[in-house]
């Protein structure tokens, strides 16, 4: 119980600190999404999702615009595809609630070897492609 309480307090402090520096954090990730380094872009895309999950009420328009730009103008197919996934989930944020690892803002999902983009693809396909029903894509 004591360990769980400490984890919860640490997460609460982390979230309070992020809220306190929200503008700077958003600007930093927006800058990261403008880089030419695919690795920085991809990890920033995951962090943008973590921000959306943990702070759904915050203004993320600047980051959403950057992600949308990457969908069409990313340097590689890989970046464009991953940006497309993230852009979809930013617009359908309720789909992110099942990704428990995104809720923990204090941990790096890459260090846990979580296949984030594979998981996003599976959920998106399950939501969009439905036999015999109107899909989200058709709406």
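-> sequence recovered:
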């Amino acid at each position: 119980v004591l360990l769980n309480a400490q984890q919860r307090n640490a997460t609460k402090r982390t979230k309070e600190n992020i809220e306190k520096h929200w503008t700077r954090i958003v600007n930093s990730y927006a800058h990261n999404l403008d880089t030419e380094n695919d690795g920085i872009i991809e990890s920033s895309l995951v962090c943008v999702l973590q921000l959306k999950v943990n702070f759904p009420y915050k203004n993320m328009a600047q980051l959403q615009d950057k992600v949308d730009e990457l969908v069409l103008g990313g340097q590689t197919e890989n970046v464009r595809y991953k940006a497309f996934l993230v852009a979809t989930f930013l617009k359908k944020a309720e789909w992110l609630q099942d990704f428990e690892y995104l809720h923990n803002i204090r941990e790096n999902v890459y260090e846990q070897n979580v296949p984030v983009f594979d998981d996003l693809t599976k959920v998106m396909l399950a939501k969009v492609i439905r036999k015999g029903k109107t899909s989200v894509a058709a709406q």
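Helices lie at 2-20, 22-32, 38-54, 61-73, 77-91, 100-103, 116-128.
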